[in-house]
Write a structure and sequence with these properties.
By secondary structure, the protein is an alpha+beta fold. The chain has a single domain, classed as Creatine Kinase, Chain A, domain 2 (2-Layer Sandwich), CATH 3.30.590.20. It is built from 17 helices and 17 strands. A hairpin with a 2-residue loop joins strand 16 and strand 17. Helix 2 crosses helix 3 and helix 6 packs parallel to helix 13. The protein is globular, with a radius of gyration of 21 Å. It comes from Rhodoplanes elegans. This is Glutamate--cysteine ligase. Catalyzes the synthesis of gamma-glutamylcysteine (gamma-GC).
């Protein structure tokens, strides 16, 4: 998230929280596509993580991007922590360990999201190259220990860093050593939101396998294909997971509000100050009884910021976020929105996808999610492998994108962006398995070549 929401409208009741989600509904002709992607910056000379300060650090990188783009800086005290395009809505932000994220502007077509990505990377290289900085598209930092990684000067991350070890063993690894690519998509009604949420939750392990790209930790194979996905299984059970209740009768905005109210808070922000309320209840803030802010009631800012600290496999905000995929080399990044747009923005495909998953039990969905970080395409559900499901859903996505008939200036439709996934399912091997083959073969048991072959 690039910047915290600033809207001090007081919340009067639970109904205001429900209305906040409902306000995200859009007519189908206004549906947009948002892509968020993170990458690891590193020193080209030594393949080390960047500090924040210094002539070749994160601050210098952000200041250089500001000069090129003319975007508004996002400041925290004296520190620049991001940039925002106030015209189109895109932003650049920092994850806790300096992972560099582009939160793309809402676009009409995948062609536009791809053009945005290419422009971003070209601008980034223009600034980074003189500084000796490269960028890596992997789901997990392949060689660095946590102690080597600089902590970004953001108040919310300080609070999260203190809280994570209390609720899981791997939360700090999630914060400092992982990267993801996400797609954000719209819904037209509460019923449309529920159907898309259920389909994308059930199929999220398929996307995890298709993008599995984190088999190394501290220079060695870690036993997983997507260790980034495995990390989430032991980060914080209160705010992550497969949300089995979302498939129960009565699911809607109100049920999500009740879930979010039960997720412990991290912080409340007042002015430039982050107040540590980690583990406390938003219900108390809503009622004006939070001990850290006695007599003070919640605002829309508080609610929006709290929602941004909930991390299930699919997250509801005023749109739906697909959160199950590892970061990958840049040419494959547009494949994620292509996959989900083809499935969810086509009514026939949304129905077809629901037919695939509707008979799965909560236990089966959870088992699939638990298997996929280690097994990838070999994970199974209801007698089918994820590879079978990947082949079927990628084919559905192709048909859905073809029916959208969104062409670029060369007359090409959006199906071209599925090519990396079609290649993967044809070979039946995840990106991580390709990396492991190189490690055990051409790379001679070293991870270091990844910084050259997989750099942006």
């Amino acid at each position: 998230m690039a910047r915290d929401v600033i809207d001090m409208t007081p919340l009067q009741s639970r109904d205001d929280l429900v209305a906040w989600f409902a306000a995200g509904e859009k007519p189908k002709d206004k549906f947009r596509i948002g892509t968020e992607h993170e990458k690891f910056p590193f020193t080209i000379a030594r393949h080390e993580p960047l500090p924040y300060e210094g002539p070749r650090g994160i601050r210098a990188l952000l200041e250089g991007m500001q000069m090129i783009l003319g975007w508004e800086p996002i400041m925290e005290g004296e520190h620049i922590i991001g940039l925002v395009d106030v015209t189109k809505g895109g932003a650049i932000s920092l994850e806790p360990g300096g992972q560099f994220e582009l939160s793309g502007a809402p676009e009409v077509t995948i062609h536009q999201t791809c053009s945005e990505l290419q422009a971003h990377l070209a601008q980034l290289r223009e600034v980074a190259a003189p500084l000796g900085i490269g960028f890596l598209g992997l789901g997990m930092a392949p060689t660095w220990t946590r102690t080597e990684i600089a902590v970004m000067p953001k108040g919310r991350y300080r609070i999260m860093t203190g809280y994570m070890p209390k609720v899981g063993k791997l939360g700090l690894d999630m914060m400092y050593r992982t990267c993801t690519v996400q797609t954000n998509l719209d819904f037209s009604s509460e019923a449309d939101m529920v159907k898309k949420l259920r389909v994308s939750l059930a199929l999220q392990p398929v996307a995890t396998a298709l993008f599995a790209n984190s088999p190394f930790t501290e220079g060695k194979p870690n036993g997983f294909l997507s260790f980034r996905s495995e990390i989430w299984r032991d980060t914080d059970a209160d705010r992550s997971g497969m949300l089995p209740w979302a498939f129960e009768p009565g699911m809607g905005y109100e049920r999500w509000v009740d879930y979010a109210l039960d997720v412990p808070m991290y912080f409340v922000k007042r002015g430039d100050r982050y107040i540590d309320v980690a583990g406390k209840s938003f219900r108390d803030l809503l009622a004006g009884t939070l001990d850290a802010l006695p007599g003070e009631r919640a605002t829309l800012s508080d609610w929006a910021n709290h929602i941004s600290t909930i991390f299930p496999e699919v997250r509801l905000k005023r749109y739906l976020e697909m959160r199950g995929s590892d970061a990958v080399p840049w040419r494959s990044l547009p494949a994620l929105p292509a996959f989900w747009v083809g499935l969810l923005y086509d009514d026939a495909n949304l129905d077809a996808a629901w037919e695939i998953v509707k008979g799965w039990t909560a236990e089966e969905r959870q088992s699939l999610r638990d298997q996929v970080p280690r097994l990838g395409f070999k994970a199974t559900i209801a007698g089918r492998t994820i590879l079978d499901l990947a082949r079927e859903t990628v084919a559905l996505a192709r048909a859905g994108l073809a029916r959208r008939e969104k062409q670029d200036w060369m007359g090409r439709d959006e199906t071209r962006f599925l090519a990396p996934l079609e290649d993967i399912v044809e070979r039946g091997r995840t990106p991580a398995e390709e990396l492991l083959e190189k490690f055990h073969g051409a790379w001679g048991g070293s991870v270091d070549p990844v910084f050259n072959e997989y750099a942006y």
